[in-house]
Amino acid sequence: MIKRSFLGLVAPKLQYNLAPDPVQDLPVPNTVTLLLRGAQNGAGVTAFKVGEAVKTGQRLASSPDSSEYVISSVTGSISAMAPYVDSYGRKFTAITIQTGGQDEWDAGFSKGPTLDTALKFLEYAPGNPSFKAFADPEKTIRTIVVNGMDQDLLLTANQYVVQNEASDVKSGVEALKKITGVDRVLMAVPENLVQQASTTGAEVKTVRDTYPEGLPHMIMKDVVGQVVSADDTLADAGAVFVSAEAVAAIGAAFNAGQPPVTKVLTVVAKDGSTRNVRARIGTPLGDVLKACNVAVNDRDRLILGGPMRGAASYSEDLPVEPGTDGIVVQDDADSAQTTDYPCINCGECVRICPVRIPVNMLVRFLEARLYEDAAAMYDLDCCVECGLCSYVCVSRIPIFQYIKLGKYELSLIETAEAANE
Ligand code: SF4
Ligand code: SF4
User: Fold this and answer.
1) Ligand 1: does its nearest atom lie under 6 Å from the Cβ of 373?
2) In what order do the strands lie in the sheet with 326-330?
3) Pocket test for ligand 2, best of 3, 341, 344, 391 (most atoms within 8 A of CB)
4) What pLDDT score does 44 carry?
5) Cβ pair 174, 166 in contact under 8 A
6) Which among 215, 221, 383, 399 is the best mutation to test ligand 1's pocket, defined by most ligand atoms within 8 Å of the CB?
7) Closest ligand relative to 400 C-alpha
8) Minimal-distance CA residue to ligand 1 atom 4
9) Is 20 left (phi over 0), alpha (psi -120 to 50) or beta?
10) C or N terminus of the chain, fewer CB within 10 Å?
11) What is the pLDDT of residues 71-99, one digit of tens each?
12) Looking at 225, 256, 287, which one is the last position of a domain?
């Protein structure tokens, strides 16, 4: 079924890597860059300016009431602010901070685990935990699922945290219960981490070690026993997913009185070897790769995330973000190039899709930018974003990228329609 390798020297597998590498702590970089969402451009941010001193843990938002913010991961001064547009056209302000000397921690973070503190400081924690559903009167959250699985093949940062930082996860589980008032906290882990997970105070459930069983919708179906319908979000179905790394970071934050400022990520080199590092959020990717002795040459492919779900990046200057679980470097010779060949209706994508989407039909509508029809007729919203269809496509159509773009464009259409009602 699987025809090719992710990397030239690695045999194709659909099993998660269940042996986390130790974590190497990287030094504080000379600069960090934090991407502040919502501010249209650097000039639009008036709450702070170039030259201003910032402390580690300081909340930076375009206005005090804004729900969009970043947390400074270093002590230093703002050396640049510039507009940044991501591959979906979303606008950010890139705030670059020149680090200077020892960490001096900002005193704004409260040690008391409240929803207000979580909303103001913890949504920029590793894994981007979202607390908005708990503040939404239209949502009834009954279950918090701590996901101890990693979200892609080869990555092991989350499993590392369960294996080695279970006491912080335990503190995080207690804090989450106080913050949200939700008593039912499940923890989904592979069989080999059940012992560590059982010390965290969460109700432990096992997840199979085959991809994509660790993705939230698959856990909802197979572990929680609830199928999330296409029209609903996980929160609509009463569940919020938080990564184990996020929960540990939340626990450590309330223990220390300091918000999280680091991210654990897996670096996959061209030969398929992996290592885990802990870096300040905002560290340039190039600094991480240099510390791992991974050279990137012209035409090599840099992927943020994992091999199945990651997105190609164009620059080593981009920063590690709270959601950056991995960096994969593929040699040019090993990179699977996409094509504009037509679909030949071989059916491989349909056979491998875990939610039985007629992908061969879906992709035709996505290529034609008929996003609403793709959702209405061919289950675009049911896609759990595993990337398997792209992986097996014999025509090498970038199906997964079409799906991600289609979902994003659809969300813009729906937002515009809601605004006009
Ligand atoms: S990414 Fe492809 S294979 Fe995976 S759920 Fe979506 S359509 Fe199916
Ligand atoms: S795998 Fe590719 S070529 Fe085959 S049916 Fe699916 S989209 Fe078409």
Assistant:
1) no
2) 23-25, 274-280, 262-268, 326-330, 301-304, 311-313
3) 344
4) 53
5) no
6) 383
7) 1
8) 386
9) beta
10) C
11) 999 999 999 999 998 887 888 999 999 99
12) 256
Return d(Cα 101, Cα 106) in angstroms, integer: 15
Of residues 61 and 48, more confidence is placed in 61
Give the end of a domain, one of 230, 256, 282: 256
pLDDT band at 415; cut points 50, 70, 90:
confident
Cβ–ligand 2 contact at 245 (below 6 Å)? no
Q: Would you say residue 369 has pLDDT above 50?
A: yes
Tell me whether residue 38 is in a domain: yes
Q: How many domains does the chain have?
A: 3
Which has more pLDDT, 234 or 341?
A: 234
Among 350, 351, 378, 395, the mutation site with the greatest number of ligand 2 atoms within 8 A of its Cβ is 395
Distance 350 CA to ligand 1 centre (A): 9
Q: Is 52 inside any structural domain?
A: yes
Give percent above pLDDT 90 in the chain.
78
Statement to judge: residues 224 and 185 lie in one domain: yes
Alpha-carbon gap, residue 412 to 415, rounded angstroms: 5
User: How close is the Cα of 272 to the center of ligand 2, in Å?
Assistant: 27
Closest CA to 359 of 371, 345, 373, 370: 345
Residue range 233-245: mean pLDDT, rounded: 96
**pLDDT band at 156; cut points 50, 70, 90:** very high
Secondary structure letter of residue 145 according to DSSP: E
Do 66 and 123 fall into the same domain?
Answer: no
CATH number at residue 146: 3.40.50.11540
For 129, the domain range is: 115-256
Residues 231 and 361 in one domain: no
Report pLDDT digits (tens) over 310-360.
998 888 999 999 999 999 999 877 766 667 788 999 999 999 999 999 999
Query: Measured in angstroms, how far is the CA atom of residue 360 from the centroid of ligand 2?
Result: 5
Does the beta carbon of 388 sit less than 6 angstroms from any atom of ligand 2? Answer: no
- The residues with which 314 forms a beta bridge, in sequence order, are none
SS (H, E, C) 260-283: CCEEEEEEECCCCCEEEEEEECCC
Residue 277 lies in a domain: no
Atom of ligand 2 nearest to the CA of 342: 3
Cβ neighbours of 369 (radius 10 Å): 12
Q: In testing the pocket of ligand 1, which one of 350, 378, 384 has its CB within 8 Å of the most ligand atoms?
A: 384
Same domain for 227 and 135? yes
Same domain membership, residue 190 and residue 162: yes
* Whether residues 81 and 196 fall in one domain: no
Is 176 found in the same domain as 83?
A: no
- Do 398 and 352 lie in one domain? The reply is yes
User: Is residue 256 predicted with pLDDT exceeding 90?
Assistant: yes
Determine, yes or no, domain membership for 25. no
